[in-house]
């Protein structure tokens, strides 16, 4: 497991007591293999972090979309905190390298699994909330959530949840070309496949995504491509 001090530096908040952070990194598979030496997994902190995340995401979409009704706000919040989004935040922190995962789960690819990473990210939010309250959790989360808000776009985009269509419109409008998708990898047992798909524009790879079906992986690749394009359009991008 990577040094905890590195993760604390990436979080950007000071901790007098790192007990909660350490617990947030314990996957249940590790606890099951080390029951006598590990008091608890990160599941309780995940529960807490999920609630904190929901509040902060709700505040952001409420402020950003003053004309949206309750149903639209609910859809925007759901789009903002979906599993793949949270897994991306976890990967940006390199969270998988810090997590304590059982050997069996490790062999099954848990360290880079979207669900495991998303749960770990929520547990981390719970630990930050325990140490720094809602203000600290907001400081940690808001810039990360705002980054994804730019990708989600409008209320209609969130409802459609169709990143492939959005990417195609964007690329055709700006470049008069059509993106193409290619399956580049398949892993996992037959009952739990993970597909990896690239979206191309000519020879350029716009984004790489993964999912439990080719459709889900394609949507993830398109979303990541939209994120890359949005980042390039920012000042200094």
How would you describe the overall organization of this protein?
By secondary structure, the chain is mainly alpha-helical. It has 2 domains: 4-157, Ribonuclease III domain (Ribonuclease iii, N-terminal Endonuclease Domain, Chain A); 163-233, Double Stranded RNA Binding Domain (2-Layer Sandwich). The chain has helices spanning 4-11, 19-24, 28-33, 43-64, 70-80, 83-93, 103-107, 114-152, 155-160, 163-175, 214-233; strands at 180-187, 194-201, 204-211. The protein has a 3-stranded antiparallel sheet with strand order 1-2-3, covered by helices on one side. The longest helix has 39 residues, at 114-152. It starts with a helix and ends with a helix. The mean pLDDT is 86.
Short account of what is shown:
The protein has 237 residues and is mainly alpha-helical.
How do the SSEs run, as a string of H and E?
HHHHHHHHHHEEEH
Q: Give the biggest beta sheet.
A: 3 strands, antiparallel
| Overall pLDDT confidence | 86
Spatial gap, N to C terminus? 33 Å
Query: So, the CATH homologous superfamily of the largest domain?
Result: Ribonuclease III domain
What keywords describe this structure?
globular; 62% helix; 11 helices; three-stranded antiparallel β-sheet; mainly alpha; 237 residues; Double Stranded RNA Binding Domain; 2 domains; Ribonuclease iii, N-terminal Endonuclease Domain, Chain A
């Amino acid at each position: 497991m990577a040094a905890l001090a590195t993760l604390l530096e990436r979080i950007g908040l000071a901790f007098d007591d790192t007990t909660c952070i350490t617990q947030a990194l314990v996957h249940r598979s590790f606890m099951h293999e080390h029951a006598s030496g590990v008091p608890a997994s990160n599941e309780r902190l995940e529960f807490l972090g999920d609630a904190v995340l929901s509040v902060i995401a709700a505040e952001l979409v409420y402020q950003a979309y003053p004309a949206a009704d309750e149903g639209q706000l609910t859809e925007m919040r759901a789009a903002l905190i979906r599993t793949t989004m949270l897994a991306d935040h976890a990967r940006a922190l390199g969270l998988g390298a810090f997590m304590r995962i059982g050997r069996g789960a490790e062999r099954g690819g848990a360290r880079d699994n979207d669900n495991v990473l998303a749960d770990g990210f929520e547990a981390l939010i719970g630990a930050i909330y325990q140490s720094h309250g809602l203000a600290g959790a907001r400081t940690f989360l808001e810039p990360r959530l705002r980054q994804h808000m730019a990708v989600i776009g409008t209320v209609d985009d969130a409802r459609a949840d169709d990143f492939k269509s959005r990417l195609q419109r964007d690329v055709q409008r700006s470049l008069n070309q059509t993106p193409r998708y290619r399956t580049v990898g398949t892993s996992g047992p037959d009952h739990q496949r993970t597909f990896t798909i690239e979206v191309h524009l000519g020879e350029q790879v716009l984004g790489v995504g993964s999912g439990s079906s080719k459709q889900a992986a394609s949507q993830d690749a398109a979303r990541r491509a939209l994120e890359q394009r949005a980042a390039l359009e920012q000042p200094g991008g």
